């Protein structure tokens, strides 16, 4: 088994023990990227030179006995939605083609300050709009389990990179499931932290009130390690919560002991039914049985307003993004298209935006502009905010009864590239289970629940916890993961990328 | 310009047939150290695009964070305007595309202003008008566009435009009045008095430079006419960026005459934005507002609500300066001005100037005299506000001190002012350069007296005979001989001594 197949925690331990250098680790991942990314297309930009320089600096710190962090020297990939000084940042859009940010987002700063070499920027649906990464202006990412399938979205790049051992750690962003759903599609772990617990400064906003950065990894413990690194209050993000969410790594380590005695788990009534793929449900039921075996008290809980979540989400998100995306006018940065003749500034804006934005982006700008228009605001945006309040209240009531909620992460396994490309509504429905957490700001985790016997593709299970109680996710997630790993004899990995001698 | 020239109606005729209604929107640029939503210096001037960062440039990923000092200033302005202060309010995005707007939305406040429901009393010719304040809200300034080429200096027809984002994100407070009604013939003066009083108030709070000439205070004038006695409001025009007190008065007056011209000809006023022209006091059409711009306001999702605690609001209330009306009563008593003198000083916008001149050592009456006569006359001739006439209170006090010391007389002092207006230096330097000092040595005066008496022996006889008034002719001759540089009182005294 090579270094790339080890978890981030194992790689960190090996660095600490002097068994490997960061340059070796980084080079191994760069080699994997070079060998596989022509096919996968998980990365939009690979910074081999920068990553190796950071790795060399990390090795010097190790040698001097002064690493910056437990993960110092463990390489990482960053979703192209977060600004990185000197590295291209496009958010998967043509309109930002060639833009090199002059500043680091706060999470980038934290990653650099902890000494993690940055391998590059990962592919995503344009401005994070999508559930398949097919909306990337630079072409889709393929699922490591089946190259004919989508890896989920919008963060398909980060999930595929982690799933294909191109990186042990990646940053994702989750607005309606963009970390968790790709996690489920690729058999990896993804966490959407409590809203406001990880700084959004430097995140190219999709919907400001829903967006949250989080970890994409192969194990629950790795997510906890990365989550603690990137979390914390940031004065540059006004919506940032004052207190750091702590105890995540401890919770993950404690969870691995598989004692869930006293934990009340609620199955969400509204996230069951015919819309859910039978294999997905089967794997889910097996996981529930394991939870019970570990001592969890499992009950069913109804959150009646969830049925309106999708409608509210697709008004709030387009409204916010229609305004966020107005700044992309080709006046100050990004790709400018100048029509013939002597066009006015307004004409240049129009033509550049028409050429720079993809169909899904235009669709949401139009919906959002409409929803905010005078005379329609109350009926659309106003009503959606009321539903949002109802969903928050539903969560509050549910968490009076149970400690965590549980559901399958997504209704189905990964679909074929192109299958839903012309049916936006079918695509939107993939986020049915993940959207409510974003509307309420609560944290959520998706971990692999197994492999579908029908198509051999991974399935995911999602846990949700109350605001700031992210630690609960790591406890229950690590417990279930440990039990499943025992059944499976380790992580589940796509055959084409599995270490030799495993699976 | 394709616009047909407006038919203007004589002001008295406007008043016979219409009632004016005004609404004033004043933008005050705060003098905080940093911008509204980022840490960039909020300073006037500076090389273009030097005081900028990802946030005020609207770069992808950048986020705003509220400047607490700006909120404090907004609350103090609100309290000084007798407003309610919101328990909880939010910022909102005002969405529209314009190249000087880094994000293509302005972060402002919409239906939840920080301050609302207040008033400011202003006095015009002895009559008090209560101007009701609808709201005072916080927002950020835009960048500054300079359109190069083309004849109008506007974006239409320009060859290219230069944009300086140093101003983008500087904190602004917009203060909006309710419709100001029942001012009749005094409408232009009420508008001016309100802006003046507001300026004094904000200045006393110390939260802005309130320099209209530099754009740190800007006024938009909404005006409409309704048929006399009919009540209701007519269609309004909004005249933008009226940048001096004098212009506020002129803009109201011009728009009243223009609206009346349109209405009396059977036309209807177009609801539009208009530009004021300092040069001739007219306005011209800007962009039409009739397509009902839809700014698609919604709460700014990147900012948490502003919820000032009541304790803090009360602490800030305790820091408010003396209300302008009370201050005027106090100053009038201190200075011993008659009601008429005080009113003239207020109308001339000279209160601060007199106060500063008195503080610099001049007697109140002397300060009043200079500002309301000599300097007012020159400001009027130049078409500028008194404060911009070109002399400072310190200089006026200095001139007056020289008069008190017998170095200058009034006539010479006016020549010193000539020098000051011409920028020839300090009063002392001007006296030196122009050789203006009074002859303080009796010798040359006595010689001039001898010459004058010799030339007019009959006058000398009259004086000796007890007709002291006759000495005036000799004084005149001496003044002429010394080219005005003699102290007339001293000459008179010397003549009497010489002949007694």
Overall pLDDT of chain B, averaged? 90
Largest interface: A-B, 45 and 30 residues
Overall 3D geometry of chain B? elongated
Q: How many distinct helices of chain B?
A: 16
Strand tally of chain A, please?
Answer: 11
Beta-strand content bin of chain A:
5-15%
Distance between the termini of chain B: 78 Å
Order of helices and strands of chain B: HEHEEEEEEEEHEEHEEEHHHHHHHHHHHH
Helix content of chain B: 25-40%
Q: Going across the major beta sheet of chain A, what is the strand order?
A: 1-3-2-4-6-5-10-11-9-7-8
Cα radius of gyration of chain A in angstroms:
21 Å
The protein's oligomeric status is heterodimer
Total helices of chain A: the number is: 16
Uncertain runs of chain B are none
Q: By helix and strand content of chain B, what is the structural category?
A: alpha+beta
Order of helices and strands of chain A: HHEHEHEHEHEEHHEHEHHHHEHHEEH
**Global Rg of chain B:** 28 Å
Based on secondary structure, the structural category of chain A is alpha/beta
What is the overall pLDDT average of chain A? 96
- Name the helicity range of chain A: 25-40%
Shape of chain A: globular
């Amino acid at each position: 088994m090579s270094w790339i197949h080890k978890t981030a925690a194992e790689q960190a331990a090996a660095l600490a023990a002097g068994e490997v250098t960061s340059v070796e680790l980084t080079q191994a991942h760069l080699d994997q990227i070079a060998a596989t990314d022509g096919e996968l297309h998980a990365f939009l930009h690979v910074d081999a030179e920068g990553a190796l320089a950071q790795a060399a600096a990390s090795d010097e710190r190790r040698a001097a006995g002064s690493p910056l962090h437990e993960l110092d020297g463990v390489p990482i990939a960053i979703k192209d939605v977060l600004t990185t000084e000197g590295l291209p940042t496009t958010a998967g859009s043509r309109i930002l083609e060639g833009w090199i940010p002059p500043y680091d987002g706060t999470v980038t700063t934290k990653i650099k300050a902890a000494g993690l070499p940055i391998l590059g920027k990962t592919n995503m649906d344009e401005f994070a709009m999508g559930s398949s990464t097919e909306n990337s202006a630079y072409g889709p990412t393929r699922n490591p389990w089946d190259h004919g399938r989508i890896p989920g979205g919008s963060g398909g790049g980060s999930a595929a990179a982690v799933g294909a051992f191109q990186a042990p750690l990646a940053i994702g962003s989750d607005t309606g499931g963009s970390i968790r759903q790709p996690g489920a599609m690729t058999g990896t772990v993804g966490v959407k932290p409590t809203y406001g617990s990880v700084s959004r400064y430097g995140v190219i906003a999709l919907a400001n009130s829903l967006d949250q950065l989080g970890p994409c990894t192969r194990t629950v413990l790795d997510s906890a390690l990365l989550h603690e690194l990137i979390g914390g209050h940031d004065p540059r993000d006004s919506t940032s919560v004052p207190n750091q969410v702590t105890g995540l790594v401890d919770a993950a380590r404690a969870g691995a002991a598989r004692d869930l005695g006293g934990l009340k788990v609620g199955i969400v009534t509204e996230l069951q039914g015919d819309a859910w793929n039978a294999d997905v449900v089967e794997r889910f039921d097996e996981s529930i049985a394991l939870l019970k075996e570990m001592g969890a008290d499992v009950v069913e809980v109804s959150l009646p307003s969830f049925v309106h979540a999708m409608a509210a989400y697709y008004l709030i998100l387009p409204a916010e993004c229609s305004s966020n995306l107005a700044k992309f006018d080709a006046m100050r940065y990004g790709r400018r298209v100048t029509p013939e003749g002597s066009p006015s500034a307004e004409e240049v804006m129009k033509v550049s935006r028409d050429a720079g934005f993809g169909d899904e982006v235009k669709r949401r700008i139009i919906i959002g502009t409409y929803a905010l228009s005078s005379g329609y605001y109350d009926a659309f945006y106003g009503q959606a905010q009321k539903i949002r309040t109802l969903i928050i209240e539903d969560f509050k009531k549910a968490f009076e009864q149970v400690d965590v909620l549980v559901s399958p992460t997504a209704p189905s396994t990964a679909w074929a590239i192109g299958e839903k490309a012309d049916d936006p509504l079918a695509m939107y429905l993939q986020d049915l289970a993940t959207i409510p957490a974003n509307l309420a700001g609560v944290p959520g985790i998706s971990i692999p629940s197994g492999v579908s016997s029908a198509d051999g593709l991974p399935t995911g299970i999602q846990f949700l916890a109350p605001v700031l109680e992210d630690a609960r996710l790591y406890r229950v997630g690590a417990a279930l993961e440990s039990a499943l790993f025992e059944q499976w004899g380790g992580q589940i990995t796509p055959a084409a990328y599995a270490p030799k001698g495993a699976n | 310009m394709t616009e047909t020239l407006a038919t203007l109606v004589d002001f008295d005729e406007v008043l016979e047939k219409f009632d004016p209604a005004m609404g004033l929107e004043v933008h005050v640029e705060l003098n905080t150290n940093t911008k509204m939503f980022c840490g960039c210096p909020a300073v006037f001037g500076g090389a273009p695009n030097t005081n900028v960062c990802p946030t005020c440039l609207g770069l992808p990923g950048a986020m705003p964070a509220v400047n607490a000092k700006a909120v404090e200033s907004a609350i103090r302005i609100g309290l000084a305007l007798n407003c309610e202060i919101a328990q909880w309010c939010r910022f909102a995005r005002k969405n529209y595309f314009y190249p000087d707007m880094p994000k293509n939305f302005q972060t402002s406040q919409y239906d939840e202003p920080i301050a609302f429901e207040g008033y400011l009393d202003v006095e015009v010719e002895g009559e008090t008008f209560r101007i009701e304040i609808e709201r005072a809200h916080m927002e950020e300034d835009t960048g500054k566009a300079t359109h190069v080429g083309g004849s109008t200096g506007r974006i239409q027809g320009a060859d290219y435009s230069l944009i300086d984002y140093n101003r983008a994100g500087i904190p602004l407070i917009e203060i909006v009045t309710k419709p100001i009604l029942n001012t009749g013939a005094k409408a232009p003066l009420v508008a001016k008095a309100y802006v003046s009083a507001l300026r004094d108030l904000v200045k006393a709070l110390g939260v802005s430079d309130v320099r209209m000439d530099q754009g740190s205070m800007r006024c938009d004038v909404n005006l409409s006419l309704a048929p006399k006695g009919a009540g209701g409001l007519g269609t309004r025009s909004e005249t933008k960026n009226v940048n001096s007190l004098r212009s506020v008065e002129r803009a109201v007056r011009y728009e009243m005459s223009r609206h009346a011209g349109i209405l009396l000809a059977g036309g209807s006023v177009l609801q539009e934005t208009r530009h004021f022209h300092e040069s001739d006091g007219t306005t011209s059409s800007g962009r039409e507002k009739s397509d009902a711009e839809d700014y698609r306001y919604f709460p700014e999702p990147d900012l948490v609500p502003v919820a000032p605690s009541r304790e803090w609001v009360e602490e800030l209330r305790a820091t408010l300066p003396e209300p302008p009306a009370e201050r005027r009563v106090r100053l009038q008593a201190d200075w011993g001005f008659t009601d008429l003198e005080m009113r003239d000083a207020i109308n001339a916008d000279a209160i601060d100037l007199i106060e500063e001149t008195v503080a610099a050592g001049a007697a109140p009456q002397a300060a009043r005299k200079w500002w309301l006569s000599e300097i007012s006359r020159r400001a009027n001739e130049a078409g500028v506000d008194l404060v911009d006439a070109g002399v400072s209170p310190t200089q006026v006090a200095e001139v007056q001190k020289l008069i008190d010391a017998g170095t200058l007389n009034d006539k010479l002092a006016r020549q010193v002012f000539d020098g000051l207006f011409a920028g020839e230096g300090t009063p002392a330097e001007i006296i030196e350069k122009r050789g203006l000092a009074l002859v303080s040595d009796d010798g040359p005066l006595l010689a001039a007296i001898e010459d004058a008496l010799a030339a007019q022996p009959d006058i000398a006889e009259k004086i000796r005979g007890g007709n002291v008034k006759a000495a005036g002719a000799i004084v005149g001759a001496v003044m002429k001989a010394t080219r005005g540089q003699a102290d007339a009182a001293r000459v008179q005294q010397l003549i009497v001594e010489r002949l007694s």
